[in-house]
Amino acid sequence: MKQKDKKITKSQKERHSNVVVLDNDYYDDLQSDVSKKSKRTSDKSHKTLKKNLTLKRGRIVEVKSNYLNIVRIDGREYPCSISGRLKQYMFKTKLLTAVGDWVEVDMTVEPDYRIEELLPRKNTLSRFTESNFQKEIIVASNLDYLVITPSWLMPMLKPGLIDRYLCIAALNNLKTIICINKIDLCEDFSKAEAAMAYYKMLDIPVMFTSTMTGAGIKELKEMLTDRDSVFSGQSGTGKSSLINALEPGLDLAVNEISSFNEKGRHTTSQARLIGWSFGGNLVDTPGLKTINLHKNQKSLIPGVFPGFDDYTDKCYYRSCSHEHETDCAVKAAVEEGKIPVERYESYLRIMESL
Ligand SMILES: Nc1nc2c(ncn2[C@@H]2O[C@H](COP(=O)(O)OP(=O)(O)OP(=O)(O)O)[C@@H](O)[C@H]2O)c(=O)[nH]1
Ligand SMILES: [Mg+2]
Ligand SMILES: [Zn+2]
User: Fold this and answer.
1) For residue 257, how far is its CA from the centre of ligand 3 (angstroms)?
2) Mean pLDDT in each 10-residue stretch from start to end of the chain (354 residues)?
3) For residue 257, which atom of ligand 1 is closest to its CA?
4) Which residue's CA is the nearest one to ligand 1's atom 24?
5) What is the DSSP string of 143-180?
6) How far is the CA of 73 from the centre of ligand 2 (A)?
7) pTM here?
8) Four-way CATH pick for 295-353: 3.40.50.720, 1.10.40.50, 3.30.200.20, 2.40.10.340
9) Ligand 1: which residues within 6 Å by Cβ?
């Protein structure tokens, strides 16, 4: 039998499934020693791994290629390849590593460090390519916050865009912070507060910042401390400026023209996980500008649009789109003024765009 024609044997299948079917205990204490794994998990791993491997837990900070990753282990970065067993599994499942992934690395043969395990992800942030095939690309994994960063002016605040980002975050199982930057350009602060009242009512953290006056930077830093975050927002809202204000040493290019290749297309994004000096990490990625909703996700929007979940249970139809149906609790809430008309219209625009 030719190598490539070989069917997957039972033991191979077990080995493959072992790669991802790990206990969730891993997440309860990611810093914990490998030896503290639950019995079930460690039994499984022993079946699959050679004896006496000293596996160290680390985090992927950069993906160089499908099979070469930079992994941070105990504060140092190591180039790591992927073990044959894991590579085979990844090939079969079309799985790729992503920035933010927790992995276990065999450190025994220096400098040939090898990733032996890929731990389950608590969430992922994906973007879709703009081609017709709309391939999903995982930008990063295991994040705490999507920091939605519009500016008050230049470019002008568009709450509809905030709604879109909130839907994306909900679909990706990410928490959010809304950070309205350039608040120095706001002459009447009560207007800014009024614009954000709905989101505040939904208990979404809202911050107002200015990299010019320093307003709100300390509060933002407190929110981000010991958390892993990614900033998203239109070009020019001041994301790089904010990151520089939070961590002056980073020196991210401000006002740079985003990377285009000679054909005028976006170049492939190289996401990186950067540690804050005050604890936690930042995912820096040009590719994030293109995070968007996918048309396949349309049917999920009625359930995740900000503020609708209080009402969706009370709609007559279980899969109510809150558009044309009778007996729709969302539409009733709009009529009663519980959901602002502007937000409902924003919802309809998102639905229409998909
Ligand atoms: N008035 C005012 N201008 C700001 C503020 N923060 C940033 N800017 C200016 O806004 C412009 C864009 O800032 P960037 O930090 O490059 O914006 P960005 O969001 O990183 O833009 P992209 O990288 O293109 O996505 C620059 O000219 C900054 O000086 C602010 O708080 N107030
Ligand atoms: Mg920038
Ligand atoms: Zn409804």
Assistant:
1) 43
2) 42 38 36 39 45 85 92 96 93 91 94 95 86 76 96 96 96 96 98 98 98 98 97 91 91 54 45 93 78 88 96 94 96 97 97 94
3) 24
4) 235
5) -SEEEE--BSTTTTP-HHHHHHHHHHHHHTT-EEEEEE
6) 28
7) 0.82
8) 1.10.40.50
9) 181-182, 184-185, 210-212, 235-241, 254-255, 258
